[in-house]
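Entry 12.
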Amino acid sequence: MSNQLTAITEYFLELDALKLVNRRTYIDGGVRLENSAEHSWHLAMACWSISRSFDLDISEEKLLKLALIHDLGEIDAGDTFLYAADRSSAHTAEREGIKRLKSHPGNAISDLSELWEEQETGHSLETKLLKVVDRLLPFLHNINSEGKTWRELGVKKSQVVNAHAFIADDFPEIHLWMTDTLNLAVKAGWLDDC
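Predicted 3D structure (tokens):
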């Protein structure tokens, strides 16, 4: 059992490396950058809460698992900025990271790859909600920091609109709120209206 516990605890340290992956989202009104582990926890809590607020018929267990593992591939691949010019290779690099974590001797989560693929390419209500909230949270942080990331990186309104357009299909109420809030951010000068 000693060797098994050593492998398990080494795996825990592998997972802990997600804390070292900084995102480009400022938290607490712009005080510092968020890391991917913080984002994953926030995503899990927000998904759980909003699923109950909207009274959705979903598997909370599945939703929470998807939220907790959705950025694990970033341990190896790093974070890819939502508004980056080229995001095409991000998922490939993340997928390789998930394969590495799944094959770790200390990993007991046999369906790790399957869960990661579900959140990446699936169409379940849990996956749809996860993707919406995954976009909503950095949006909220940008609003709370007066567009700090948007201003620093020259993000335009059209980029934000395009990145969030899919939300209108499954969660129109959230999309409408985001659109109204985005228009207020443009009026405040937090991003360019183009």
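Annotation: The two ends are 60 Å apart (CA to CA). The beta strands are 22-27, 32-35.
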